[in-house]
Design a protein that fits this description.
With 264 residues, the chain is mainly α. It is built from ten helices and no strands. Helices cover 73% and strands 0% of the residues. The longest helix has 43 residues, at 144-186. The two termini are 46 Å apart.
């Protein structure tokens, strides 16, 4: 079976065989994603958290789910407008390529949902030993007391085995979700499978949508306001600038313009 990171990469990496791949653009996208992760790590290490680690992790998981919903909506709207705006037969051709972006957009919510489910199971929110109660699975073969003790031991072993399985699934789901989020953001959720120009057009829409989400939330670290504002605006502004550069490079080197890809 593939590792969770490999599975996430398969679901979120562009795979259209005839897609034009510019190595400079691909390298720039990887550098952009790496710098964003380094900046996030520096902010978390340089300043204390406003809340406990557990609350921080749970809050980030909630933000991830909400952010995924925003990204899914923004991505679906953007790709749909692109397909509808294209003249025949280009519109039908682009519509036939949306399987890749749909799988990439669904990978992160799927992984986050499995994480939430396994955390709830490990916390006893789904089922616990108190919900099972004492039972005699031996049907009185060894007497009620001994049968209840044996049944209780079997139930305890089953709960231990289920807990270990849930822990393994949790680790795999966390690795899958993080890898899917990083790879998906780097590839703009495989929208390049529809057309090479789409990632550059949609990336600013996605990052500014996530920026709008952050405006309604308090900062995670006790940093000065200037640092928080610079960090919050740095990502959207840098992504927008790089997207403009990508659009220009695709136009000058490969002749791709919005008018030509829409058949207008």
């Amino acid at each position: 079976m593939p590792s969770p990171i490999a599975a996430a990469s398969v679901l979120t990496s562009p795979s259209r065989p005839d897609r034009i791949e510019d190595p400079v653009i691909a390298r720039t996208q990887r550098v952009r994603t790496a710098l964003g992760l380094v900046a996030m790590a520096w902010l978390l290490l340089a300043y204390p958290l406003r809340e406990g680690r557990e609350d921080f992790v749970l809050g980030k998981l909630e933000e991830l789910l909400i952010g995924c919903c925003i990204v899914v909506v923004a991505g679906v709207v953007g790709v749909s407008l692109f397909i509808v705006s294209a003249r025949a037969p280009l519109g039908r051709m682009y519509a036939g390529r949306i399987g890749g972006p749909l799988s990439a957009l669904g990978a992160v919510p799927l992984g986050a949902g499995v994480v939430w489910l396994t955390v709830a199971a490990l916390g006893g929110d789904i089922v616990s030993t108190a919900d099972v109660g004492p039972h005699d699975f031996t049907f009185g073969l060894f007497g009620h007391t001994v049968g209840t003790l044996i049944s209780g031991l079997v139930i305890a072993l089953l709960f231990i085995a289920a807990g270990l399985a849930c822990a393994a699934v949790l680790v795999a789901a966390v690795c899958f979700t993080l890898a899917a989020a990083v790879t998906g953001l780097n590839s703009c959720f495989r929208t390049g499978d529809v057309h090479e120009l789409l990632p550059a057009l949609l990336s600013p829409l996605l990052v500014w949508s996530l920026f709008g989400l952050q405006l309604f939330d308090d900062a995670d670290v006790a940093a000065p306001p200037l640092v928080i504002y610079a960090f919050s605006l740095g990502g959207p502004l840098s992504v927008s600038a790089l997207s403009l550069w990508e659009v220009r490079r695709l136009r000058t080197r490969y002749g791709m313009t919005l008018r030509s890809v829409l058949g207008r």
